[in-house]
Specification:
Elements lengths: L4 H17 L5 H8 L3 H13 L3 E2 L9 E2 L14 E9 L12 E3 L14 E7 L13 E5 L9 E5 L5 E8 L5 E4 L8 E3 L3 E10 L3
Parallel strand pairs: 3-5
Antiparallel strand pairs: 1-2, 3-4, 5-6, 6-11, 7-8, 7-11, 8-9, 9-10
């Protein structure tokens, strides 16, 4: 089912808030951001839930989340461009920055064909992944996913609300190890983190 422009705007605000902060905005925060009433936002959110774009737990605050298999037009690629939604730390974690630009692949390779999926681009800042060939200034193409397998390079949201690019490992004790690929950096060990996506490609301009 297609979404209205206002529903798309609400979907993007929720998606971006969950990616950068790990929680969804409140109805009032959405209303303030869009300059509409809280009732109007509630009606649009209800429509998004009915259309399968959002899921929520009615008994839990800030529980709106993106349906894992729902893809907006700005997350689809045709082999030419990806939405450029921010920068990602490959050194010490930094807060994710919102950016509405697009990464035009025609400036790299010219028109190509590709599969349609929930994908976006991030520009790397830092050198912690350089031994895997991911350098500061590179662009990583990320498939939006909430789970990862050991050895996959992920965009991870840490408990402190910061995002980082590292290789994902789940240890036997249940903790998560986010492994850099540079001996100058120590691994990040956490009890839990939120996987925001898995790297499926790297682009570099020479």
């Amino acid at each position: 089912m297609s979404l209205t422009p206002k529903q798309i705007a609400i979907f993007r605000l929720i998606r971006d808030a969950r990616m950068s902060h790990g929680i969804s905005p409140t109805m009032q925060e959405l209303a303030d951001e869009l300059g509409v009433s809280k009732v109007t936002v509630f009606e649009h959110v209800e429509a998004l839930v009915r259309k399968g774009a959002l899921t929520r737990d009615k008994n839990k605050a800030r529980s709106l989340s993106i349906a894992e298999d729902y893809v907006l037009p700005d997350e689809m690629h045709d082999g030419v461009s990806f939405p450029l939604v921010g920068r990602i730390a490959a050194g010490y974690p930094i807060e994710r920055m919102q950016d509405d630009e697009s990464l035009d692949l025609s400036s790299f390779f010219g028109p190509t064909t590709g599969s349609v999926g929930a994908t976006f681009a991030l520009q790397v800042e830092g050198d912690s992944m350089q031994d895997e060939g991911i350098f500061s200034g590179d662009y990583v193409i990320v498939e939006r996913r909430q789970t990862a397998r050991n050895g996959e390079r992920v965009v991870a949201l840490l408990p402190e609300g910061e995002t980082t690019l590292k290789t994902f490992y789940k240890e036997k004790d249940g903790r998560i190890r986010l492994q850099p690929a540079n001996e100058a950096f120590d691994p990040i060990i956490v009890d839990h983190c939120q996987v925001q996506g898995v790297v499926i490609g790297v682009l570099r301009r020479y």
